[in-house]
Specification:
Strand order of the largest sheet: 3-2-1-4-5-6-7
Helix content: 40-55%
Distance between the termini: 51 Å
Structural class: alpha/beta
Strand content: 5-15%
Number of helices: 10
Oligomer: single chain
Radius of gyration: 18 Å
CATH superfamily: NAD(P)-binding Rossmann-like Domain
Number of strands: 7
Length: about 260
């Protein structure tokens, strides 16, 4: 799909990858871009620069995503591309508090479910539409130091796969964005993981460029870090060896778990 004359919604569009997506999409002469973000001022600043529309949205709440879809339809017409991009991260294992597990589940997975529920009927009716879901390389591999992040990003990848398989015959295209380290505030706040990811980290603008290329080719997996494909092959080829290697990396960062 090409983005010229298309209507696009980007959640988490006020900063990081979402901001870069909005700014890059704007260069493709779209019909309109809706910048949705929990930080209304940040969304407004991005929308002003690109000539889009800003909407405050907490993606953990389905009704707010539905309102974004309704506003986009009223302002620009039917949505061609919905980028379910907003996400959060924090550390911890299975002992992380239940409220943190619930919050990251709602933001990193259920927001994608809510978005699909909201836009699929109109897309299926006209026989075309595109869903971009931002997951993470953690959804294909794992995330050292954060069970909630690893689990929810795996779930996001699984949902994207299901949507692609189930609705491809309806004319719906799906891409799943799975970067490693990206130079955003999330990476800055990642603690010990920062030293592991920073060397190969890319800019949000590089991610956005990869997304435009991936969408134009209608690729399911969009991997701004090509080495992720190799890591996935290694994991599938010998899971036990791969997990032993990741465990060694974890010990190097955190020490023994004994």
């Amino acid at each position: 799909m090409h983005l010229k004359d298309k209507v696009t919604v980007v959640t988490g569009g006020g900063g990081g990858i979402g901001q870069a997506l909005c700014e890059r999409f704007a260069k493709e002469q779209p019909r309109g871009i809706v910048v949705a973000d929990l930080d209304e001022q940040a969304a407004a600043a991005v929308a002003e620069r690109i000539g889009g529309t800003a909407i405050r949205c907490d993606v953990a709440h389905e009704e707010q995503i539905r309102q974004v879809v309704e506003r986009a339809n009223e302002t620009y017409g039917p949505i061609d591309l919905f980028c379910s991009n907003a996400g959060i991260a924090f550390g911890g294992g299975v002992d992380a508090p239940d409220d943190q597990w619930q919050l990251i589940w709602d933001v990193n997975l259920m927001s994608h479910v809510y978005a699909a529920r909201a836009v699929l009927p109109q897309m299926i009716e006209r026989g075309s539409g595109y869903l971009l879901q931002t997951a993470s390389a953690a959804g294909l591999l794992t995330q050292i130091g954060s069970a909630p992040y690893a689990v929810t990003k795996h779930a996001a990848v699984a949902l994207a796969e299901w949507l692609s398989v189930t609705h491809g015959d309806d004319g719906i295209k799906v891409s799943c964005l799975c970067p490693l380290g990206v130079r955003t505030k999330m990476l800055e706040d990642s603690g010990e993981m920062r030293q592991l990811l920073e060397a190969d980290a890319v800019s949000p603008d590089q991610v956005a460029e990869a997304v435009v290329e991936g969408i134009s080719e209608e690729r399911f997996l969009i991997l701004p870090h090509p080495q992720v494909a190799r890591f996935v092959q290694q994991k599938a080829g010998d899971p036990d060896r791969w997990m032993r290697g990741i465990a060694r990396l974890r010990r190097g960062l955190y020490g023994s778990s004994d």
